[in-house]
Amino acid sequence: MFTGIVEELGEITAVETLDDACRFRLRGPVVTQGAKHGDSIAVNGVCLTVVDHEGDEFTADVMAETLNRSSLGALEVGSRVNLERPMAVGERLGGHIVQGHVDGTGEILERKPSEHWEIVKISLPADLTRYVVEKGSITVDGISLTVVDAGPDYFTVSLIPTTLDLTTLGHKQPGDPVNLEVDVIAKYVERMLGDRAQGAADRAQGVAR
């Protein structure tokens, strides 16, 4: 489990294309401290497993399912990425509960800079709109953010200078893809309410018979 608080901006140093997957080599001096085979590291919000680790670099395999559901397939040598290690038990939850399981991708639509912050408008896939609400939480490229405005096919977030300086959202431009993960609690609530409604309908049909 992650918190959406990015630890550092890493860099893709090598990409190996396989038949139905690819292997990334990434540089991240902070997240590689104490890293070992099998550890998890979130890369632009996608939970990946460390295959190998040497110095300040690590490798991770990305299967076709992940490439199809996320923006990782667009990464190339030199691409900057947000990196975060899993939250340790007992630490503060600075952002919100982030699984590292991308629900879909959006696209940067617009950026509106101001003196002390910047408003970024991002497209929202139709199947995710029901999970995104004003002042709710959403993960964008692994960054825990608060929704400012939730539209029918978009949402906006407000970025402070720290976020602009230390994450990929500081340099992404309109047209660039981003990974989205909605609040997992909303998905659980939807499932439970759906099961309850279905149970009530089944009981009603039983009485009718």
Automatic annotation (TrEMBL):
Pathway: Cofactor biosynthesis; riboflavin biosynthesis; riboflavin from 2-hydroxy-3-oxobutyl phosphate and 5-amino-6-(D-ribitylamino)uracil: step 2/2. It holds the Pfam family Lum_binding. Residues 1-96, 97-193 form the Lumazine-binding domain. InterPro entries: ATP_synth_asu-like_sf, Lumazine-bd, Lumazine-bd_dom, Riboflavin_synthase-like_b-brl. Lumazine-binding repeats lie at residues 1-96, 97-193. Keywords: Repeat, Riboflavin biosynthesis, Transferase. It comes from the Bacteria. It catalyses: 2 6,7-dimethyl-8-(1-D-ribityl)lumazine + H(+) = 5-amino-6-(D-ribitylamino)uracil + riboflavin. GO terms for molecular function: riboflavin synthase activity. CDD domains: Riboflavin_synthase_like. The keyword Calcium does not apply. Its EC number is 2.5.1.9. Gene3D superfamilies: 2.40.30.20. It is an enzyme of class 2 (transferase). Catalyzes the dismutation of two molecules of 6,7-dimethyl-8-ribityllumazine, resulting in the formation of riboflavin and 5-amino-6-(D-ribitylamino)uracil. This is Riboflavin synthase. It comes from Streptomyces olindensis.
